[in-house]
Design a protein that fits this description.
Shape: globular
Structural class: alpha/beta
Strand order of the largest sheet: 1-2-4-6-8-10
Strand content: 35-45%
Distance between the termini: 29 Å
Order of helices and strands: HHHHHEEEEEEEEEE
Number of domains: 1
Radius of gyration: 15 Å
Number of strands: 10
Largest sheet: 6 strands, mixed
Length: 170
């Protein structure tokens, strides 16, 4: 399966919300598709699709979007209320450590350590196939949206706030 084949399946099944259809339709390059995915709703959408049985295969993500994964690309989203940064990691495995450097981070099919630096506030979207161990340096805070099946291990119970999600949670 290719990304385009997967996209046609989710489009045919009506799984992309009305608000995002114009963004998806306008995207012409891998970077533009990645920019659509790298926001709050896009990351949650990928996690939901995996739970519904329509997940974009990790090998497709890693092959077709390699230039935009695992610390190689940071998306900046400008909004009227300010801006934020986002990134995505896929298939990072022990003993690797990810040091978070964006406000939003998608974690897909990873089994690794995650470190949140001093005074960093971030939100992670952890899919159901990931197992992560999170540590937070002084003054940091990590909010985790965790889908069914995913596992988060932490000793920083005051600094790591986990919200267990199921398909379509807002």
């Amino acid at each position: 399966m290719t990304f385009k084949e997967w996209l046609n399946i989710v489009l045919d099944k009506g799984l992309i919300c009305e608000r995002y259809l114009p963004l998806v339709d306008a995207a012409r390059s891998r970077k533009q598709y990645m920019d659509v995915v790298l926001d709050v709703n896009g990351m949650a959408f990928l996690c939901d699709m995996r739970e519904k049985g329509y997940g974009l295969p990790y090998d497709v993500i890693c092959e077709e979007f390699r230039a935009y994964l695992n610390g190689r690309y940071i998306h900046t989203k400008a909004k009227s209320s300010g801006s934020y940064t986002a990134s995505m990691y896929c298939r990072i495995e022990d003993p690797s450590e990810i040091t978070i450097n964006t406000a939003l981070t998608g974690i897909f099919g990873c089994s690794c350590w995650i470190r949140v630096p001093k005074n960093m506030y971030c939100q992670l979207y952890v899919d159901g196939a990931s197992v992560v161990n999170i540590s937070v340096d002084d003054g940091g805070k990590c909010y985790v949206d965790l889908w069914d099946g995913g596992i988060v291990v932490t000793e920083d119970t005051d600094a790591v706030i986990v919200k267990h999600r199921t398909i379509g949670d807002e």
